[in-house]
Structures are given as structure tokens and as C-alpha cells.
User: Fold these one by one.
Assistant:
Number 1:
Amino acid sequence: MRSFESGVQGKRVRVFLSDLKPRLIVVDAAFESPVRAVARNMNIEIAELRSIEQDEAGAFSFGPDASVLVSDAPMGCAKASDVALVLHTSGTTSRPKIVPLTHENLCASAANIAQSLALSPADRCLNIIPLFHIHGLVGALLPSLSAGASVVRATGYDATRFFDWLAEFEPT
């Protein structure tokens, strides 16, 4: 059996990481991400994110290797012009490109989509798109949150469960 790293997906991850040149990869400690093997092979530091289950949603800590996150840089709030995330395009017209998106870009997109959809705090989004996909993050999650709406994050698209989710969560 071939390892993940030598397969097609492993090669894609290697291309992405080679393009992005990250110094650190943050992975969820609860999941064995195949990205770990590629990152280790490329000598990229790995930090494990651990959910704090007894705390509110989204609370986390870093595993014992958190020292790789310590920096001499001053702590502070992000500025609107700071890069919030780096989008690696799909490459449908040529080789994938790296597109830095600032906090201001993301907030403007979220506000525009929320306004276009007339979202309000009374709305609920059923998000079936992965958050690593730009539409899952910028098309569904951020506009809903910017409008004060709630978001139900499905574990992924499942045609056999989709209509049950509609009945259970009653998204608007």
C-alpha cells in the first residue's frame, strides 16, 4: 500500500506547501491529517490544536510543542491591511496562484454578501461546504456571522442526510 505522501493528493499538498513556504502547520490534534507526513518530510514545524471541551465553542489550546509558536513579535490586534489568509486558487485557467486576502477584503466580502442576501440575526445557515474552500468560509460562514446569524456546520455534503438536516436545523 502506498503512503499518502506518494499518492496524487500527497503530491498536491507538496505543491501547495512548496508554493506557500509555511514555517508552521497547525493541525487538529483529534484528527490524523495526512498533511502531517508531507510537512514532516519538508521539515515544516507542526503544532497541534486541541479543543477545550469544557469551554465554549471554539476554545482551544496548543499541544506540548507550542513553543514553536512563541515569537518575539509584539502581540496586538490585527490591522485591516494585515493578511488574514492566503488563498491558493484552483488553477482552472493555468497554474494555481497565491492570493493574499486582508482582513479588510474578508470583511468587505462578508458585508456585501450579507447585504445581498438580506441576512439578519434571525437567519440560520446550513454550511455543507468545507471551511478550507473559499465559498465555505467567505460565501457562507463570514456573511452569516457578520449579520449576527447562526451557522450549522455539517460534517460535509451527504446527499442521504441533506433533507434530514434541512428538517432538523431549519436553515433560512
Number 2:
Amino acid sequence: MTTNYKDHLFHPLEISICGHSGSGKSTLIEKLIKKFSPSFNIGYIKHDSHKFEMDKKGKDTFRAKAAGATNMAISSPNSNAILSNNQNNKFIFRQNFVDSDIVFIEGYKKSLCHKILMWTDSDDDKTLLKQYLDDGKQNLLAIIGESEYAPVDSIRYFNRDNIDQIYTFIRDFWDKEISARPLYGLILSGGRSIRMGEDKSAISYHGNTQTTYLYNILAKFTQETYVSCRAEQKNNSHLSPYPNIDDRFVGFGPTGGILSAFQKHPNAAWLVVACDMPFISSEAIFDLIKRRNPYKLATCFLNEEKNWPEPLCAIYEPKAALKLGQFLAMGKPCPRKVLMNSNIQSLRAVDQKILGNVNTMDEFKIARSQIQAMGMNDEN
């Protein structure tokens, strides 16, 4: 089972390179970043056990800190930096690294995150390794050293010059973490359908209610599928047969439904589809899943007409919950804005028509006629 996000230090896909000073941590991380950077957006976090100072005496930020400021920032057209006395850096870093695909951590050898130990055969190394082996919760994945011989047989060992092997080992580890991540389906049915005049999730385009139609599609591809609805809706006859998730963020539209799903299953990725998208098909969902990039915050189709991401036919990875919550707290409860300001995988749909949504009875009549002319059958 994949590790719970809350059990990580900063990011769901992170590895700490540990060891004592002079063991080669920085050199190894530099080589690994060069290997990973052509394909990944990489975060790097350095833990300094000494009391380092990034500021310089006499500089404006130094003077502001001396005067009593606890949080400072400096910004230029090309770079930004935040200086903080806040010791709750785990939460700050989680926010700042949510758009990283992967994160390398240098240090934090006493943490419980997944780690690789740099080995020099010193007495300090032997003491640290014994501590790790005695504590089964230390998540020690591998040891890297100069010798061709492993210090213990129970832990995978690499020579530090075998960068290709180390790269493959780390990549395989992260791929396994992702493969253990369940994919659940979510049908957004909690809207009030004011313009339509009746519940859009109960309307029939394909010989059955839209809820049933979409549920039958998503159930083919996901381990579990849920209907997102308001608490007063769940006993409605067209919704009650299906597992549901009550919207706990009432009044915040689709973002509220997605966040409610993440509250129920925070370690799952969520395949989200809105009930007012009648042209969605099994082929479209299969295509979305096949081209999914689980290292990104989300995978979605691109609305080519408006050149923006379609947030209501998309796969949201677990770390998306943090970004959705941030935007909601800023008064921006629009999932499209989240995707437009995030590191996502955007796909061109084979047919742009699948992204069409229906909000009025006139649009419904047109869409139903088009669906009948296209011969789209019920997905039972």
C-alpha cells in the first residue's frame, strides 16, 4: 500500500539522501537531478543541522528581520525567495513544492521518510545503519558507497559510480508507489441545475439517467466509483443505488465535491466527471487514463476552442487536494483556475465534442438529437 500523504515530509514522491558530512550526498543528488530533469519538474530541499544564515548584515531584509519581522520575501523578475523564522517548515514546503513532480531531500536522516544512506564505512555510518536496522520504521531503501561490497545483505547496495542503476532503482520505486495508488471515480451531481429547471443527473440522453450512464462507464476503469451530491439528494431514486459522498464544502461548486472526495480517500487519485457532459464515452475515459501522467498534479483534456484545461473530465492526483484547498481559501473556488496555475498534463482530445456540457432545456434537446444521430448507445 502506498504511504499516506501525511506520512511524507514534503511531497508524495520524495526520497531523502542521508549520510554524514563529506559522504557525497550533494554530488549524488546533483548527478540524479541531471538524470531526472529532462523528464521531471524536480524539487530539492537541503536540511542544514547548523544554524545557517541566508541573509547578509546591512541588507534590507536583514534590517527588517532585526527590526522584528518574522517573514520576509525578496522578488526579482527571474527569482523569488522567502525568508522565515517559522519552524513549521514542513507545511510551508508542502505548499511550495506541490507542483514538483518529484523531490530530492538532502539530509533529514532522523525522519521517517524513504531514504538512501551514503556509506563511507566509518564508525558513525555503522552506528547510523544499526539504528536504521533496529527500527523497522526507518524506510531505508538502499545504501550507496565506494566499495563493490555491501555492508549488509538485507538492504540493496549500489556503487556510487553506477548512476544509471541508481536512477532506475529510484524511478522503479516511485513507479511502484504510484501503481499502488487507487484510482476512484467521482460523478459530480451536486449542482442545483437552476438553468435546466430539473436535476441534470436525472436526465436521460442514452436510455437511462445520466448518473447511471456515467456510473457504468467509470465503473469499468476504477476500483470504486462514487456519486458526489448534496446531503438532501442522496435518497433520490436515481442516486440512491450508488455509493455517494456528501458534499462537505457546500456552496463551492465542483471544488467542494472534489475536496469532499479527497477527505474520504486522501490517498486515491480521482477520475472526475460532471453529470452535465452527455458526450463522454468509454473511449474518451480510456484515452484519458492511458495518457495519464501521475507525476503531475492532474491530467485533463484541453478545450481547444478556449485554450484552457477542462477540469470536469480529469484525473486529480492526491497532492491536488492541497492546491484546491489553497485556492478555495483565497476565495477562488474554481477548479479550472487551479489547473491553469498548476503543473498538469494537458491532452488533446480525439474529439472535442466530448467536452461539451449542457445547462438548459434547449441545449438538452439539441444534445439528445445529436447523440441519437451519432448512435451513442447506453453503456450498460
Number 3:
Amino acid sequence: MMDSLGPSWKFIGPYMRTALGGGDGGFEHIMKHLGPAVQRWLKDMETNSFEYSDENLKIVAQSVQEMQQGADMEEVEAQRDELIIDTLKAKAKATALI
């Protein structure tokens, strides 16, 4: 999400992004094209959904702790905040974007 859909959704939102992705056919074209795949993705997500339990929470928490190892969380927070502010300033200048 950080390097693909996220920035695009941030600037124009998911519906306008989808409409642009549909080319000349717009939103309807891309939804007809992706609709069957989206239905399979939703079914797969339901089949593999996260069921909350204390045990599952411990597994996920351990995974996140491993991912954070070596990261300076204060620096992560500072860089995140700086990027958000810079992004909001840039978007305010882009008057054609909704």
C-alpha cells in the first residue's frame, strides 16, 4: 500500500483512481474487467481471515516485533509526520484533484 495504491488513493481517492484506471471506459470498464477477480479475492480473504484470539494476537504481535527490530521508532514517527505534512501541502496546491 505504501508504494502502490496508498499514494494514489491519498491524492484522488479509490473511486477516481479506479475511473482513471478504466481508460476510455472509465469506472464501469475497469469494474467489469476486475469484477470476477475481486470476487475471488474477497472469497479468499474470507477463507483466510484473521480470527481474533489471545493466541493469534501473540503470533501477530511477535511478527510485528520482529519487523520493528533495529528500527528507531522515534525516527520512523518523525519521518512519517514530515511526509504527511509535505504531502498535504503538495495536495493543497493541486487544484484539479478532488
Number 4:
Amino acid sequence: MMRRAAFFASALALAGCVAAQPAPVVSTPSAVAPASEARAPEPPGSMQWLYGSAEGAAASVQTYRALQAFVEAAVRRRPDSSVVLTEGTTLAQATREPCGAKPFAVVLDADETAIQNQGLEYALAVRGVTSDRALLNRWQEQPRSAAPAMPGAVEALNAIRELGVTVIFNTNRDSPTAAATRATLEQAGVGPAEHLKTLFLRGDVDGKSGKDGRRWHIARSYCVVAMAGDQMGDFTDLLNERGLSPRERRRLATSGSVGALWGNGWFLLSNPVYGPGVRGSIDEVFEPENRWDGER
């Protein structure tokens, strides 16, 4: 009995010694990451869709395949009219430049049409801003490899060139960036591009920011069988006139002879990230008859 008591006393003493010892130090990650390792903000849903989603890529491939098929058919039948609206025309009674015997061309925008400005948009996203003119200027001034081709663009544009159709870029990048823009397009695989021949920039031809003057200049030498872009100004400046509400602009773009051109010479790439299409108050976006209060 005494032996058992001594045993328990010894065990209690040992336990007391273990408990009294300081706990070992375990290295654990800090709950707060250093500023240099802070997590970047989530990109807006518009960027997630355009630059990261399967849906965005599929929409681009689909558009480029439709463009290619349309151009192939146009070359076979030789249209009488270009898809460039004539100077002085109106949206109500739109007329188009004649083709005659001029060689064929396709005219398209560059940014978010032929190439994706992923590098620039990443820089904006991590800063938590939607625009920054100084950042944009730095981006445009140098050739960029972080500007991959839009999905489907390389294959379609190469096939169009094989038909003997000239591919011409009409972009609103600033004219002094011509060399850098050319290099960016060619690095992405959508070139070649030559300034004032197959590459026109803001200020070229007429000194204006609108693209109509450049389109008319191109149409004087070519039968433009198709155009592609991501905004209305890539097709006609008439849809960018000041004072047009989002709803009226939408109506004009989808009615009459202009509305008939979508998929029939005019091909739009989706761009929910920036541009005049991304605007409008809640009252301007939602028609009164399409509003629901969530109650019944």
C-alpha cells in the first residue's frame, strides 16, 4: 500500500514539473501579411469576363469565325458597296461607299478587338482604378508583349489575308506611338502593320479623334468588305454624337439600314470593361416597363 502511494506521489510531482515548464515556441504565419505581400484587389467582373473567362474567349472566337466566313463569301460575289458609310450620310438614310473594281480590305480596331490590353488593365486593377491617362501613355509608348491576340483573331486574319484581302487597323492610339503600336500588333501575331498603309491612328489623315475620316480615306482605295471593333465608333462616328442618351443610341444602332449591318459586314467584339458603352444611370438603362420592385 505504501509502495502504491509513493508511486502516485511521484507521478503527481512529475506532472507538476512538466506543467511548470514553458510551452515550446511554434512558428506560425503572421495573421497580417506584409504590405509587399498584400493581396491584390479582385478585378471587376467585366475584366474577369473579358480576360479570364471561357465565355469571353468563346464569344471572341465565334465573332472572328463569323467575320472570316462573311469575308470569304463577299470575295466570291464581289459586292457593289463597301460597308463604310459615305461622307455626309445620316443614320436615318445611311448610304455606303461604292466598291467598283477596287481591291478588297477589312478594317478593324486594335485594342480589345485584335489584341487584349491585359498588361494595362492589370496595372489599373491592382491600383483599384478604372482609368489613368499617365499609365495609358506609358503603356502605348513601348512595344508590349502583355497584349495577347483576341481569341480567334490570328487564325481568322491570316485566313483573310490568304484570300488576297488587305487587313487594315484603324485605332485611336495616338499617332506618335505608331512604331510601338506596330510592334505590339506584330508580337501578338495579328500583323503585319505599316503606318499610313495598313495602320491608321488618332490624328492621321484629318487630325481628328473620330475614325470616319480615316475610314473614308481607306474606302477611296479599297472595297471594304467587313469591319470589326468593340465600340460603335469603330463603325461610324454618328453613333457617338454628343447628346445621344444610352437608350437612343441603342435604338439607332439596331434599327434601319445600320441595324441590318450587324453580322452582315459589321462585327462587334464584346468589351464590358471601358468605353462609351459602359455608361447610363439606372433610369437610362432600364426601360420603365422592364422594372420590377422585387415585391410581387
